[in-house]
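Supplementary Note 3. Input sequence used for the single-chain structure prediction.
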Amino acid sequence: MKMKIKSILVSQPAPNESSPYLEMARKEKIKIDFKPFIHVEGVDAKELRTQKIDLSQFTGIIFTSKNAVDHYFRLAEEMRFAVPDSMRYICQSEAVANYLQKHIIYRKRKISFGEKTFSDLLPLFKKFPSEKYLLPAADVLSPDIQKVLETVSIDWTRATMYRTVCSDLSDVKVDDYDMLVFFSPQGIRSLGQNFADFKQDGTKIAVFGTTTEQAAIDAGLRVDVMAPSKETPSMTLAIEKYIRNLEK
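The predicted structure, written as discrete structure tokens, is reproduced below.
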């Protein structure tokens, strides 16, 4: 007998009112709760110095996320470093580039951005190869980023400016949910750290991305829903398809 999905826990912060998750909850008549399994903590100036990072030595910055933007400017302020107007910014997406306006006057600055993925930045690195680039990053760097940077002839240095840590989930009862949804290997790690006695049994596990899938498999979990795919490019579409198949 196939078990119906009546409740889902999404390991992310609650979205805004126009979220496809809330639309799915209404349409499928299921309860969806949100709880971030991980959160970001910044390193301090002292720790950055132990990495032998001198912010004044760089003429360009590669930003992969809004977190990277926030923590770079936070540390620049903490270290009393005035970011020069001549700094070149290479951003992974237009959204990240626009986010720079929170920290700098956008006009007349050297700002370029890619489409979406890190490999989209390749033409920009070839266009501006002579800068000395800093890559503000988390403690865990995506292998895709490393791979792309190894193929281009640019001078770049990684600086760990923030780290992803497991959140305290003592107020959560994971066994109350029919499905758990994960978006990163760190989210899977947080499940193991917070719920050492968790046994999957009938609980469905949904994952986004191949690295998250591999982390789930390595943790001994059965992956029931996988996104993205050509058919289901988003997590909500993948879950809806799974629910419909259960009802057949």
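The first strand starts at residue 7 and ends at 10. The radius of gyration is 21 Å.
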